[in-house]
Amino acid sequence: IEGTPGQPYGGTMSEFNTVEDNMGKRRREASSVLEPNQTLLTVTSFPRLGCPGFTLPEHKPTPVEKGVSKSLFFPDEAINRHPRFST
Question: DSSP letter string over 22-84?
Fold first, then answer.
C-alpha cells in the first residue's frame, strides 16, 4: 500500500493530525478487504534497507562520485522513480 501522500504535508502542528488520520483511513480501507483469518502488517521500511547487497542486481552507493541521494548506504538505483523525486 502506497504510503506517500498525493501532495506533501505542511509543517504545522495541525497537519500532524491529518497524517495520523490518513494513516488510519488507509489501514481501515485495506482491512475491509481481508479475509477473517488475515491481518495487516505494518513495515515502515524494507528490513535490509541500506545493508550491503540489499538490491538485486546489487548497486553500491556513490555518496561522493555522483548521484542524487549522496547517501553512504542507499544507492540511487534503489530510489523509486517518482515524479516528486529527482532520480
Answer: HHHHHHHHHHTTS-TT------SS-TTTTSTT-SSS-----TTTS-SS--SS--GGGS---TT
Q: What's the rounded Cα separation, in Å, for the pair 36 and 59?
A: 40
Claim to verify: residue 11 and residue 50 sit in the same structural domain: no
Q: How far apart are CA 40 and CA 72, in angstroms?
A: 32
CA–CA gap between residue 68 and residue 48 (Å, rounded): 21
pTM for the model stands at 0.49
Residue with cell 502542528: 13
47 with 7, same domain: the answer is: no
* Parent domain of 64: 43-87
Residues 50, 32: one domain? Answer: no
Tell me the per-residue pLDDT of 39-49, one tens digit each, with 9 for 90 and over.
998 877 778 88
**Within this chain, do residues 32 and 12 fall inside the same structural domain, yes or no?**
yes
